[in-house]
Amino acid sequence: MKLPLSRLLLVAAALIALMTIGAAGYRIWSRPLHLRVAAGPQSGADAKLLTAFNRVLDITQAGVRLDVVPTAGIHASNQLLEKGDVDMAVVRLDDPLPARAGVVALLRTNLLIAVAPARLKLDSLSDVKGKRIGLVSRSPLDQPGFQRILDTLGIKPTDVHLDIVSARDVGNLTRNGRIDVVVILGAPSDPEVQAVVNAVAGARKNPPTILSVDLGDVDQSTPSGSVEKISDNAFPRLGIPDDEVDTVGVKTALVANSASSGPLRDRTYNNAIKELTRSLIERHGELAREVPLASLISAPDKDDDSRFPIHAGTNDYLDDTDTSWATLFSDQIWNVVLIGGLASSIFAAAGSFLTKGASDPLLEMLARLKEITERAEAATDPADAAALSRELRELSFEMTQVSYERRSGYEEFAPLQLAWESAREAIAALRTGHPLQASDTIANGAAPSVRNDHQERRGVTDQGFPTEVVR
After folding, report:
1. pLDDT tens by residue, 300-353
2. Helices 410-431, 384-406: inter-axial angle, 10-degree rounding
3. Model-level pTM?
4. CB atoms within 10 A of CB 68
5. Largest CB tally within 10 Å, which of 103, 205, 368, 454?
6. Closest residue by Cα to residue 174 from 235, 241, 120
């Protein structure tokens, strides 16, 4: 079957165009989603952590990326989140969350660490009445938060002398007695916290004391806080404390708005948050090699959902403890089915277009058989039968080849068999000098009546092609 060159070129051009469009669509479809996350300050641990995490997402070819937006600090980050200028932010949970925000992951717990020189013989923060307290404030939230804790302990602002001090001045202030107690809020493993505690006047033989903080029912007194413990030898340089010390803490978390700040559908956005949560929780050990504080990352507790709402995407991750293969790859399966169905339709349409108007070899053979029959009926000279017989023989070989190539059954070739029989009978009648009339042929619907010993010797059957071609 020959096809016009113009039609082949047209189909080839259409397929190339479709492949180009498909490749472009796949590139766009597989492009990772970029989420804007506020973290600050730019040189701080949170910004470094998220920058390192984004590199991990890139290396693992995750479907989401982070664009870090530097801010002045965690309070400023929370403000950007509330305005909707960013999708996510690193915040502290004693700073009220925006109404539409939910927790994605807990980055660390900031403990209240109060340290006093050993000479003062203080054991608890409740003993600081009349003392001079130096607060190393690293966030606008530190002073009001510490003031609330003092209020809970029954210590009024007039009972103490509270100053904001710099971390680099702690050593001098405690050695000369201008500060009795140093307070800092942070994770004990934070290098800045370690430096402040180590700077308090004292030595390893007579180290400073870590004061305990006992607020009783912390959920009632400080709803955003939690009861925590400072582990023994948390500050190994001084070997303190020698036993666990009670204190309170407040968590720093990565939170996200419930809807994207960009043109993303909720499901796409939540799936991105789910994948991000999974990567952050399951790969925080890798991050800790670059940013040690990453070792403190943990998933939010669903029991605390009433205190701190959990993001829908993170909830999906927390509920996804026993995911089936079909559920995990449902989107990919649907995309494969969709693209596969579209490709099948395109190829089917292309095949239909290519074969549209093309001649059917069976119809061509039927037409040739009809022509041979008509010529045999119209001929009067028996000598013409030899030429017609050769044509019929050649046509028989072609019919056999087409039947083999198409693996056709009897039903498909039955019309050709009837036409062939008609042509054979017409040629046989011409050879004997008794040409058939058109009304007597199989081609016109009537079975021929010419059956003689000569035909029987030729091996002609009533049901199929002859065993020997008519000569």
Report:
1. 988 766 678 999 999 999 987 544 444 545 555 666 666 666 666 666 666 666
2. 170
3. 0.66
4. 22
5. 103
6. 120
